[in-house]
Write a structure and sequence with these properties.
By secondary structure, the chain is mainly α. Among the domains are: 62 residues; 54 residues. Helix content is 63%, strand content 4%. β1 and β2 form a beta hairpin. The longest helix is centred in the last third of the chain and has 50 residues. The radius of gyration is 45 Å and the shape is elongated.
Length: 169
């Protein structure tokens, strides 16, 4: 039964595609006044649009009916059971050979810990690196201060020489 509905569904879909491609658009009616359109139709000047439109509507209805039928059939053939809450659950739960850990020890003393020496070594290393970084920052600040003092001294001497040159005599 499902295969028959599926075949009808596919043929209906192909029929809809074909009919839509055959139909002329709304702009084709303006071209009919210049000798085209109505003279080339089998169904007369007004009949082709109505025939194709109605046939497309019938095929679309058949397509929707077959879609719903296929959905209903696939739901019946599936292995999902909808419970009272509307949440689907599997009818048959899969089994596994992997054991599930049910008892977790509450005693954490069995867990491995880091020794105090490892923590102290890490803290000493961090302190050494921080001290080196601080020394580098201080040296850079001192160099910057010397450079600023030299620049200020040069600027001051230049200003003094400029003032001396521009003094009125």
């Amino acid at each position: 039964m499902e295969k028959i509905i599926l075949i009808v569904h596919m043929l209906t879909a192909l029929g809809i595609i074909g009919l839509i491609l055959i139909q002329q658009g709304k702009g084709a009616e303006a071209g009919a006044s210049f000798g085209g359109g109505a003279s080339q139709t089998v169904f007369g000047s007004g009949g082709s649009g109505n025939f194709f439109t109605r046939t497309t509507a019938v095929l679309a209805t058949v397509f929707f009916v077959t879609s719903f039928s296929l959905a209903a059939l696939s739901r019946q053939n599936s292995g999902v059971n909808v419970e009272d809450e509307g949440i689907p659950s599997l009818i048959q739960q899969p089994t596994s050979d992997i054991p599930v850990a049910t008892d977790v020890p509450a005693d954490v003393s069995s867990l491995p810990t880091l020794g105090d020496s490892v923590v102290e070594e890490a803290a000493a290393k961090v302190n050494d690196e921080a001290a080196q970084a601080l020394d580098t920052i201080k040296a850079t600040a001192d160099d910057a201060a010397v450079a600023v003092e030299a620049a200020v001294g040069d600027a001051a001497s230049e200003v003094e020489s400029t003032v001396e040159q521009n003094k009125p005599e």
